[in-house]
Design brief:
Layout: E1 2-5, E2 17-20, E3 22-30, H1 36-43, E4 49-54, E5 73-86, E6 89-95, H2 106-110, E7 115-121, H3 129-138, E8 142-147, H4 157-164, E9 172-175, H5 180-201
Parallel strand pairs: 3-6, 3-7, 7-8, 8-9
Antiparallel strand pairs: 1-2, 4-5, 5-6
Length: about 200
């Protein structure tokens, strides 16, 4: 939270102290087609910025559409959204592109972030390994959010931890990337996890 002095004429002598919401940056990452654009769009209070392009025949040998055969577009740069958590906190969301050939953008998108959501799909858990490794190597706190697609396999949290090879200290939550409240709960968990990490390091 930042305090500033108001310059309004009616604010009284010396000015009135106003509270300006603090802003933080969270990255929404994960493999191709796991629901990153959907999550940013569902939770954002503004019309999200999207950089989607149509999938073409030229990418057929590069893009793995297993499990997402109906997907027709892909993010080529970023998704951007904003959500006000409360009167003191505004989140700016940066969704990453999912294909390997666009991962050179991830370092730029991660700069200044307090934490990340690694979104995974139980139909293709292996698509989450790259994102998990990315944030682990950079020491950026992250939460693994399992996007519960209709008709997807159901596993216990422990089974998914073993499959993804993540420590017990990494939060793992279930979510529906289409539901605003579900996505909001994931983001709050990221903030909590990041703050706990800071407390431990202090």
């Amino acid at each position: 939270m930042v305090s500033v002095q108001s310059d309004r004429p009616d604010s009284g002598q010396g000015g009135e102290e106003l509270l300006v919401p603090s802003s933080v940056k969270i990255v929404v990452a994960g493999g191709f087609g796991v629901g990153k654009t959907t999550m940013v769009g569902a939770v954002s209070e503004i019309t999200p910025l999207r950089t989607e392009e149509l999938l073409t025949e030229a990418g057929e040998e590069i893009d793995d559409l297993y499990g997402v055969e109906g997907k027709t577009t892909t993010t080529v740069a970023l998704d951007f959204g904003r959500i006000t958590i409360n009167s003191e906190l505004v989140l700016y969301l940066f969704g990453t592109p999912g294909q390997d050939r666009f991962w050179f953008l991830w370092d730029e998108l991660a700069i200044g972030s307090i934490g990340a959501v690694v979104l995974v799909d139980t139909r293709r858990l292996d698509a989450g390994f790259g994102a998990i490794d990315f944030f682990e190597r950079r020491g950026i706190p992250f939460v693994v959010a399992v996007n519960c697609f209709q008709g997807s396999h159901s596993y216990t949290a422990e089974e998914m931890r073993v499959a993804l090879d993540i420590a017990d200290t990494v939060p793992l939550v279930l979510c529906d990337a289409r539901d605003r409240e579900s996505c909001k709960a994931v983001l709050v968990r990221v903030i909590e996890h990041a703050m706990n990490r800071l407390d431990v390091m202090a």
